[in-house]
Each structure stands twice: as C-alpha cells, then as structure tokens.
Task: structure prediction
Amino acid sequence: MSFSSLPGSFSSSSSSVHLLQPYGWDADREAEFVPFARQGLLPGRVVRVDRGLCDVITPVGTVRADTEFVVPRDPMKVVCTGDWVAVDPEGSSPRYVRTLLPRRTAFVRSTSSKRSEGQVLATNIDHVVICVSLAAELDLGRIERFLALAMSCSTGEALLHNAADSWESGARPVVVLTKADLVPDAVTLSYLVQDVETAAPGVPVLAVSAATGDGIDVLAAVAAGGTSVLLGQSGAGKSTLANALIGEDVMDVQATRDVDGKGRHTTTTRNLLALPGGGVLIDTPGLRGVGLWDAQTGVGQVFAEIEELAGRCRFHDCAHTAEPGCAVLAALDSGELPERRLDSYRKLMRENQWIVAKTDARARAELRRDWKRKGAEGKAAMEAKRGRWA
Ligand code: GDP
Ligand code: ZN
Result:
C-alpha cells in the first residue's frame, strides 16, 4: 500500500491499527491511545533515539521527532527504542513526541557508575533470544547468567522504583544454539540441546544454522509472536541470525521512506525492524554491548528449583553449607540436584551481592566492613607467617 493514498489528517483509528500492526500495535495500545487520537496526535513506535531526536514509525511513515517535551528527570523514562509514543501530526514544525505510552517490559542495564539508576536499552520486548555458539564448548554457567539477565527484563524487577508504570506481562527467554552445522551429527546435537535444557528449565532451546537454514523457520515462528531482542557474546552469530530473519525485502522497504516533509532523508538503521514472517526485531548497539555483569535480578527464577528446595530448609536463613535439615544439601546428596548447578547458583548469588552493593550504599558499606575485616585477618596471618620466618 502506498502512503500517499492515506487521508492527510489522521482521524480513523482503524487505519492506525492497520499500518502499525506489523510493529506490534494491538487492541490494548489502540485503547490506550484513544485520548491522544482525540487530540489529533499520531501513534508511533520509536526506532532509534539520537541526541534528543528520534525516528518514529507512524501510520504516515517514519518521522523525526524531538523528545524535548517528554524529557523526564528519571533516566528510566527517557524515550527509548521500542517505546510507543504519541507524536505531533503532519504540518507541525518542529514535531514533538508528546507522550510515552506505558511500557510493558523494559530491558535495563545497571550502570557501572555510582548512581543507582539503570539505563534503558529497549522496551516492550516479548522475547529475549539468547544466542550461544555451538562452535565453542558449551559454557552452561554463561548461559545461566544470560538467562538471569533476560529474566530481569521479563519481570521489570530492576525497575521497581519506577512505580508509575505497571509491568503486567514479561519477556520470555529463548536459548538459540547457533552454528548447528558445525556439530558433526544429530545425536551429539540432541545431547547438547539436552544439556542446555538442564541449565534452563522451562525455557525453549532451539538449535539453528544460518548456514544451512536449519531451525530458522522455528525461530522465525517464535519471533513472529512479538518483539524480540538478540543477546549473546560477540561472535555468537547474532548479526547472521538477524539477517536470516530479516531477509532482503524488508531492508529495501525500510530504506526508501522519507516523509518528514523537510526533504531530509530519514536514514533507517536496523535498530527496530518488522520481520517478513511477523514480529519485530530490535538490535541496537547498546544491547550488543550488554555484558554478563548486567544480570541483576532473575537469579532466583533461573534457579527456581534451588529456591524451591531452599524454602524447605529447616532454617529460614540457611546458607546451604553445613546446616542441619538443609533441603538443598539433601538434594545434592541424593543426586537430584547436580553439583554444577549449585555451584553456578552460588557464584551468581555472590556476583549479585556485588552488583547490589554497587547500587545500594548500605550494602556497600557492609561489604567494605567485611573486606576490611578480611583484609585485617589476611594481614595478620601474613605477619604471623613472616614473623615465623623472620
Ligand atoms: P555476532 O558477533 O554475534 O553478530 O556474530 P556474527 O553474526 O558476526 O557471526 C560470527 C561468525 O560466525 C561469522 O564469521 C559468521 O560467518 C559465523 N556464523 C554465523 N552463523 C553461522 C552458522 O550458522 N554456521 C557457521 N558455520 N558459521 C556461522
Ligand atoms: Zn539449606
């Protein structure tokens, strides 16, 4: 359909549904937007944000809008790729983003700085696709950490202080084992998939090969159900997978829109794309840079069976080391709980303590005291040794 066939002023709500549907617009969004439609504003989804300006896909094509109007003090509420917004209609100059529709999920990275706020990398995500290369030996611990990261997005827990928004539905993680063509045979491949399934209970695990096309249709079907982001280490095959999902036609369609009426060409990067098989893919440099240390919440969900066992320990504050009546240690003894799994859990909990400490002054002070005490003990031990040998 050609955009020039649209009425000049956007009034019919059904046309917005029609044209934004490939970008995830649905009946709920439509309902949320009613008051803004009455004001003559256009609905749209943010493709990218760049120094206060953003590209927004609207029923009249991709437009450039200034976010100055909705600049909040809370960095969590800064307009971000994936957001649904209301923008000024055609003919407004400059054109502003007037409001941010409620986010259903948000992918937040905890900042490494001393400020406790995170940085929102992408919003309204339904699937977090964790890409793991089969070209290297599987590192289940790493997969668990990426899962914890994905879970923090799904629950929005990292954003609890952002109480104005509600986080009713979450993003679902999917583990995609890439480069399956490098695994010599199908039996080995099925064992690898099973291994990963043990580290990711309840999480779908797919093996795909962009080289042969195997499994790409399954992934495309998953991606068709909403908005996806790709996570994974550099070299995991994310770009290749994105290309396989995107195909050439979509890229061509995206590249030729210039409808902001200023004769300026709107370059559309691949930050947010409607997939030909349905669904939306968000792939931003920020998401690419997400490190494992960003996993902040979600550990409990990744290790749900351990948390469940822990609930049955005799002592409420059981550390599962040597306590009597410890259900976790009992499961370890019986073989029900693999030792590797408990080790991973402990490691992640320790790291979490560190991440929390980074953002929580009181916890930080406690840790510092702890280190000081340990440091003093270590020093005393060293001096004792030295004394002995002096
Ligand atoms: P990214 O850093 O996660 O985006 O990874 P890339 O998509 O750039 O892929 C890294 C390398 O893996 C490249 O050399 C790709 O050609 C290779 N690769 C990606 N997918 C496949 C695959 O399905 N099979 C094989 N054999 N190699 C692949
Ligand atoms: Zn215990």
The domain at 3-100 is CATH 2.40.50.140 (OB fold (Dihydrolipoamide Acetyltransferase, E2P)).
